[in-house]
Structure formats: structure tokens, C-alpha cells
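Repro:
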Amino acid sequence: MPEEVKKDEPKKKGILGKLKEAADDKEEQIAILSTFVRLGILVWSGGILTLAYIKLPPALGIPEQKLDPTFIASVFTGVLATFGVQAAKKAGENGNGGGGISKADMERLIAAAAQTAPAQTIRIEQAPVQITQAPPKSDESYKM
């Protein structure tokens, strides 16, 4: 009878083992861990918000909780913002139709401001800038 040669089968690794192999760098491991923590907080706050707005049947035995969901909603939106998701504003909010300010409106506002309080606006797009005062001219330069 021929002897069977057993191959060393690699052990199946779980999710954490695969992540550890894929991310040998400590910074990558911390980034992955922080993502999981943020996801956990997102799921928790979403669950609490959901429970705040639905009424559970009394057969479940869970008493109804009266809570103000403001803090939980701010945590929820804050965590969503870390993932790059931002809440859209409603169409009538802030009185501008939700679409921002138009170019014509901006030009009208600039013209009105220029008539009431003339001023000069300087926009600097490159830093660093140093503003110094020029030395005063001598009195001799004014003589003719």
C-alpha cells in the first residue's frame, strides 16, 4: 500500500488574522481599529435614535423610555461627518431657497455695501506676508 503524503494545509485565519497580515504597519492597524470604533458608535447611536422614535409592543417587556434624542443625534451626525457624509439643508432653510446665494444677489450686496461704507478689500492667497511701514520721507524732498 502506498503511503499517502499529507500536505500541510494552511490554517484558515479569521478576520482579525487577515487584517493583521494585511496591515503590518501599526498606523494602518490603528486606522482600521478607529474605523471599527466609529462604526460601532454609529450603529449604537442609530439604534438609540431608532428606539426613541418607534413604539415597541408591550409584549416584548421593554418599558417605554422618554429621552431627548438631541445628544444622540449630534453624536450620530458627528460620526457620519467623519465618514464624509453631511446632512443636506431643507429648501426653505435660512431664507435663501437652499441653493446658496446667486451671483446677481452677491453683486447687489457688494454694490449696496460700497455705497454705505466704502472700504478696500485685499485678498492674499499666498503666505507668509509681512506688512511694514515705509520710513518717512525727509522734509527736503518736499522743497522745490
